[in-house]
Amino acid sequence: MLNVFREKFGKILLVAGAITACAGIPGTALALTCVDCHGNPPVDNASRVGGTTGQFPGSHGTHSGAGAGQYGYACTKCHVNNAAANHANGNIDMAVPINGNTGATYGKGNSFPVTNSALVGNTCSATYCHSNGTSLATGAAASGTSPTWGTGSTTCTSCHGTGGTTGAPTYVNVRAYPSAAPTSTGWTTPTNAYVDDNVYAVYNTTTQQPLVLTGFNTTAAGLTAGDTITGISVTVHGLAASGLINVALTKTGTTTVAGTAKTATLPTTDGTVMLTTTPTDLWGTTWTVADLQSANFGVIIKDNDTTASNIQIDSVTVIVHTAAEPKMNSHASHTSKTCDVCHNATTTDGTTIASPANHAAGSYSVVAKTGTTFTYAYNAAGSTCSTVSCHGNAIWGVSVFNCVTCHNGVLNTSAATQALGGPTTRRNVVAEMKSAWSHKRSTNGGTPANTVVTAADCIVCHMEGDKTTGKTSAVHGNGYINLRDPDTGNNIKNVTWNGATPGAYVEGTTDVQFTQFSRNLGVLLENDPNWLIIAAIQQNHCLKCHDAAGATNANANVPTTGTPMRPFGVAITGHVAPFNSNGSGNVVNVVAGFTTTNASYHPVIGKQNNSYVQGAQMVAPYSGVTKTNGNNTQYGPLMSCWDCHATLGQTGVQTATVTAHGGAVTLRGPIRAAGTTATTNLCVNCHATKYATTSTQHGSGSAFTLGKSNMGTTTFNNCSYCHGYGVVGATYSATSVARPLRMEEAHGFNDRVVGTVGSKWSGGNRPYAFIRNTLSSWSPKSAVGDTIASPSTCTGTGGTCGNDMGNSPNGLGGVY
């Protein structure tokens, strides 16, 4: 294989000692292989002198060795053919080109002298081995950073990502969205097709009217005058009931087609289709950079047949392939991930190469790390990832994710979340927000109506989003949930309990973050290990919005339309007078109901001294509370918003909150409805079921032990007969009270007549025990601060029941 320079007469000219030092070959022997002189691979050393004879400076071991972490390349990958006569000529001769890659060279040139001086290595250029891959359009190796020869070990970042911190290739696809719709007759809200935000331009007629979209700012997207256009891809995000869509390009901003149109089938549920399968597709015509940078360059979309298909277009994207752009790329969207997450068969730590056979091998090795799942399918114009644990289905280099496009399915949580003891999955948040009862959103659009969720809606409450950019923030993916304080715009802070009665929560200075919401309904709130996290969410997130001022920080309002009273920019529908203090259509003032100076309130922000809420009058866990009837100096336990706001009939540990995103129902039981069980009557989830089933009033230990005979189960199985609002003398109706008054009569109040501050019952007392029904008079036995004309009475005609209860001075009304 290797010829040693010989005399023409066949005699071997030997330099004294040279051959004898090579692999133990006698001085007269013939060197036949690379191993005979300098090993294969040559043993790396700092220089040719000072080490074992025959060692060479550089990185030969990594390139040519057969051990762990070595590539086993032949010498001719980088050097001239070692059978040529110019071997051992005093020079180091490089292959032209190196590795067979067009234009690939070594920094010292094609041939340079051997020297015994200390090594001063150089770098390679345009080699596939040290690049960001090859261009699918030209076949050339893309730019990358080659490590200097002889510098020792390398990592992913030594070559890829031009020396960045993640090793991810950093080239950018020329990707642009439209900004104008010069032709849109027949289309509803055509401007909705501009950006990927789950808001749709809709066409549902039979005349195939085109939607022309222009204003693709390809210059800002990175297209430059010197680029060579090799292909154009178009993706359409949306859905259709049936049939094909027809897609074409235009150079004139009109319905005049440039080249050839294409057809595609939109999915029947929200998804994306790509109109090309190769980055060399020019749609049957030629394109210049000027054509694509023109404001008149555009995309034409229309129904492909005369059958109405309810076409809904969320966004249209143009991707321009150039000779300078190697291939589709979404690495920039994955900078929070290390290389091993998706290339685990190549690197197991995201830094070092574990399997050289899978690296620089001319093919993609896409293998998920344990704990991550996805199914990868190669496509030159944009490979797909499906069943992804990190986000929704995606087209590589095309899909742009936000809160909505990621969290529209069940996702596996990050390794960071699971390492912190968090859940293994996150729920489908988008589906929850489209529920019958859901948190308010910035639009009620969509087909069907009220099915649009935007990233801006999520950012109102979540620190994981940035309002300015509409994208994720630095805390996204940190393993925790980080909620926004609607008054400061920053992360919510911790709280402590001040220990007083009725007491109050005190805000701290430490950020609160958690891996998963959790409330155990089987224990008192203060015995729940998550008590103060629950309280921090309640006090510094929920109730700072649901107070008299609303969400006062601009970061907690959606862009443009959001206000403190309407953070999502739209009015709450269904509000009916009389309204609470914040007015019709505005965020409801929940804090006002829980205020501890009210005559009636549930103990959410402060404790309660109602002496009848204890023992046998309650169900577990509240039945363990002991008080003395009539003693108003004894205070009971606290509760949270989610002790009532859970899904129907729930008990035990709750790891989801229906108030956060939404649900089919938002209460553990119905209100203003007849019911004798926890699933049919909200009140008996905490209060004794005898209150809804007894035929002898509320029974021993209550504030209502006696009454007329007909006050039995028919009346008592609907708590709102007495404990709900009604105009004096009116006929009771279970549905007569609408939002927001239904909220107020459950949370708490201080006025007998809604909206009339300071109003009392006719006997002179405030509305204790949540009683402000349709009767003309109700009075407890006594109440601190109130002068009561006729204690322990309940009178009236034409109201809830029309029966007087004045015959029970000690068994009616209670002490407050």
Q: C-alpha Rg, in Å?
A: 38 Å
Computed structural class: mainly beta
The coarse silhouette is: elongated
What share of residues are in beta strands? 5-15%
List low-confidence stretches: 1-28
Overall pLDDT level: 84
Distance N to C terminus? 106 Å
Please give the largest β-sheet: 5 strands, antiparallel
Count of beta strands: 31
Query: Helicity range of the residues?
Result: under 10%
Given the structure, what is the number of helices?
14
Question: How would you describe this protein?
Answer:
- A hairpin with a 7-residue loop joins strand 23 and strand 24.
- The strands form twelve sheets. Strands 7, 9, 11, 14 and 16 form a five-stranded antiparallel sheet that branches. The protein has a five-stranded antiparallel sheet with strand order 8-10-15-12-13, with no helix packed on it. A three-stranded antiparallel sheet has the order 17-18-19, with no helix packed on it.
- It is built from 14 helices and 31 strands.
Core attributes:
5-stranded antiparallel sheet, 816 residues, mainly beta, disordered N terminus
Helix-strand layout with pairing:
Blueprint: H1 34-38, E1 44-45, E2 56-57, H2 60-64, E3 91-93, E4 105-106, E5 111-113, E6 124-125, H3 156-159, E7 174-176, E8 180-183, E9 201-203, E10 211-214, E11 229-239, E12 244-250, E13 258-265, E14 271-274, H4 289-293, E15 298-303, E16 311-322, E17 375-377, E18 384-386, E19 394-395, H5 403-406, E20 411-412, H6 415-419, E21 425-426, H7 429-433, E22 437-438, H8 455-461, E23 493-497, E24 505-511, E25 519-520, H9 531-545, H10 590-594, E26 600-601, E27 653-654, E28 662-663, H11 690-693, H12 713-716, H13 720-723, H14 741-747, E29 748-749, E30 777-779, E31 793-795
